[in-house]
Automatic annotation (TrEMBL):
Species this protein is from: Lacunisphaera limnophila
Domain Ketoreductase: start-end pairs: 16-156
Entry EC number(s): 1.-.-.-
Record's keyword terms, sorted: Oxidoreductase
Record protein name field: Putative oxidoreductase UxuB
Family as reported in the entry's similarity comment: Belongs to the short-chain dehydrogenases/reductases (SDR) family.
InterPro entries with a match to the protein in the record: KR_dom, NAD(P)-bd_dom_sf, Sc_DH/Rdtase_CS, SDR_fam
Transmembrane segments: none
Gene Ontology molecular-function annotations: oxidoreductase activity, acting on the CH-OH group of donors, NAD or NADP as acceptor
């Protein structure tokens, strides 16, 4: 088998439909581009039409197929509408990425109930609903599928200054592993991609100069990650061939941060 054919057989996503919730963001947007580049038809989901169009243009320029659907990730009715719209337009759903998220660097004693509820609603409820609505479709369809939830290093080890965010991501990790166990016999795989430190819109306020210095001192590669560096992990977990025996995995992409002690 030629190398190109070998790669396509394991990582190619031709004929698959991927729904990327949070695809208007920097990280999930890059993941959406990667899925489209592997042959999947990609549905970018978010609220910002301009950001979505910029991503759609990049995908189209590279020869991929994608379209945008506006939906609020914390609304069950809107996610059910998203599911129905994708099935009507694209005919199937095979891959779901739950990547909506927000962050905060508020000192612990200053965290308000409103802020706590808002972060938990976006970071946890959106994943819960995405898994419930799309997971039910995949389980009942009986043909397997892949759900990829966007976790965080703060869901693995505690990080300073992001108390509510860390709690929310810990919940995402726990929920994902529970669902991986429940749905394994239905061939629906549930995994978590765990980014290390990737500069993105949601963490700009957190990346103060002193914090950046601390991060670099704890990262063997001595740099931040680039959004495109999440694509390889995404394709592995999305592929029914390459990732066929991978479920309940927390796949860390962090430049060695997690391996560093002293």
């Amino acid at each position: 088998m030629k190398t190109e054919d070998y790669l396509k057989s394991y990582f190619g996503l031709e004929g698959k439909v991927a729904v990327v919730i949070g695809g208007t963001g920097e990280l999930c947007g890059a993941m959406a581009e990667g899925l489209a580049g592997a042959g999947a038809e990609v549905v970018i989901v978010g609220r910002n039409v301009e950001k979505a169009q910029a991503r759609l243009d990049k995908i189209a320029a590279a020869g991929g197929r994608a379209w945008f659907h506006s939906a609020e990730a914390t609304s069950k009715a809107e996610l059910e509408g998203l599911r129905d719209a994708v099935l009507q337009k694209s005919g199937r759903i095979d891959i779901v990425i739950n990547g909506a998220g927000i962050n905060s660097a508020t000192p612990f004693f200053a965290i308000t109930e409103e802020e706590f509820d808002r972060i938990l609603r976006v970071n946890v409820k959106s994943v819960f609903l995405g898994c419930q609505i799309f997971g039910q479709y995949l389980v009942e369809r009986g043909q397997g599928g892949s759900i990829i939830n966007l976790g965080s290093m703060s869901g693995v080890v505690p990080l300073s200054r992001v108390f509510t965010y860390s709690a929310s991501k810990g919940a995402v990790h726990n929920l994902s592993l529970n669902l991986a166990r429940e749905w394994a016999t239905a061939k629906v795989r549930v995994n978590v991609i765990v980014p290390g430190f990737f500069p993105a819109e949601q963490n700009k306020k957190v990346l103060t100069p002193d914090r950046v210095a601390s991060i670099m001192g704890h990262t063997p590669m001595k740099r931040f990650g680039e959004a495109r560096e999440l694509i390889g992990a995404t394709l592995l977990l999305a592929s029914d061939a390459a990732g066929s025996f991978i479920t309940g995995e927390e796949l860390i992409v962090d430049g060695g941060y997690h391996a560093m002690t002293i």
